[in-house]
Amino acid sequence: MKEVKEGELLWEPSSERKAAAKINSYMQWLHEHKNLYFQDYHSLWNWSVKEIKVFWESIWEYFDLQAKKDYQTVLSSHHMPGAKWFPEATVNYTEHIFRNRGHSDQPAIIHTSERRKVSEISWHKLYQDTIAIQQTFKRLGIQKGDRIVAYIPNIYEAVVAFLATASLGAVWSSASPDFGTQSVIDRFQQIEPTLFLTVDGYQYGGKTFDRTEVAAEIQSSLPTLKATIAISYLDDQATFSSLQHVVHWEKAINQAVKGDIEYTHVAFNDPLWVLFSSGTTGKPKPIVHSQGGILLEHFKALTLHADLGESDRFFWFTTTGWMMWNFLVGGLLTGSTIILYDGNPAYPSKERLWKLAEETKMTVFGTSASYITACMKDAIKPYQQYDLSHLKNISSTGSPLPPEGFLWCYENVKKDLWIASASGGTDVCTAFILGVPTLPVYAGELQCRGLGAKIEAFDDNGMPLIEEVGELVLTEPFPSMPIYFWNDPEGERLRESYFDMFSGIWRHGDYLKITERDTCVIYGRSDATINRGGVRIGTSEIYRAVDRIPDIEDSLIVDIPSPDSDSFVPLFVVMKDGYPLTDDLKRKINQHIRAHCSPRHVPTAIYEVPDLPRTLNGKKLEIPVKKILQGKPMEQIVNKGSLHNASALDAFFQFKEKMKI
What we know:
The chain is α/β, with parallel strands linked by helices.
């Protein structure tokens, strides 16, 4: 593949695509109804963050949010934390999902997995099944504010159960069944749930994993439970004999009586769900988002930025333990069809998701930067094997997509393709730096800051930067910020997490550059930055240089400060099967880093490890590795239950002992 520079222009939308973009319809509405005219996206963004009350009120009006009780106030205060949006209003999330259910002949959901064939679910069936599960919840005594927890894969039943939960004003939280037992207990115990949903197991990479005993252990650790709903996923005849007070899903679905969904309207700032941080140190933080804040933000992000509508088929590879599942379900708000997949994206080969794109006539393909990079390293060429004529957009998140990943998509997927790399996170359950279909695509750059999100890059003194790398901050309130952390009545944990560095300003923890043309580049976590001789560089830039070498599967770099000399900066690499780490290859790695980053950031030494530790959501753990090498005690390093592969830490403990750092 040819070389590509960060910032190189790769694609521009046609005039037809610009004209059809849903953000243009919104701008036209602003002109007709508010007498506001904006010549381009950037002028619209500037207005949206300078007049945030007017902007978010316009989003309410444009998407016609339904409220049992109307609002009197848009925003209580600009002070953070503590600002409240539309405090007098009462809303219901599920009501907005189903309000247009009779208007579309497209399916609501397409779902498939390693165990299930591709199936389409109509809006009518989704509605009827949600009624049935809501009625079951009500028979079990579920009321507004009760917590419902689910140990469940990314399958159709998960969506139904969530919509039934939200319809009653209850609070949802989910974990994927590949999570370890203690990591699930650490999450669910904190919120004292009333109802537990579980499957009997799951399949991944062609292998089945029975989870009935794990489910029983989770159930016994949750004394507040009144009942458990069991879903037979691995085995249709599963008895769940080790569980107590079980209601079987099939029985719940078939017991429905005639009628419509009953919507419990809750205060705009009442909780919708609890998402959890990765919990790499200590117990995961229980992050609570509001029904109203998520409604507003997801309507905006998924319609105006992702450009979704009734003709779209929206996919994101995710599990129920990652906020992208919640974001994917939000696609139903736009009337689009959402696509669910449960299983290994690389089974039986890395082409599985491209095959799914063809099978489902996918229009929006959401994935991780690591999946695209893996396809690039394996020289996969989807355009040669699959009909991707329906595909209009590839969106990626999870980690920065390097410029080479952008170029690979254009050369190997489709020439006329809108690529939207996005950044946000569990904390806000959205992307607030993302794409828009009316702007060009530049290699390695995120197209824009999201409407209504006052994103800036700050230096250490809290001064805004342009064309320089700084801390990603939000300087104005944002509707999908957490309303609180569960069991944090004084807000201490929330303030420590986001507001300690800059008073009254949200510090997100990423390293950001805003360019003169208002695009953005993310350089990784700011607490993992490499600092040599006062020159800081994001780890993503070093990974980009190493990724150019096909013999290397993955890499991780950390900076260990030394009081007496320059810091120790080891680079750890995972080699592809059959490829040795030779001295010649080490020299090649250093040459790439010197050429593509700077001579200052050539690692002190390069070491091979069998695997890299990752969170349950697949993010590699730079900070815990750094703490291991600094000799921190285990309780300060990482909560092993938060890891996908805790055994990967062993190599780093052994390295620490051997090197005597």
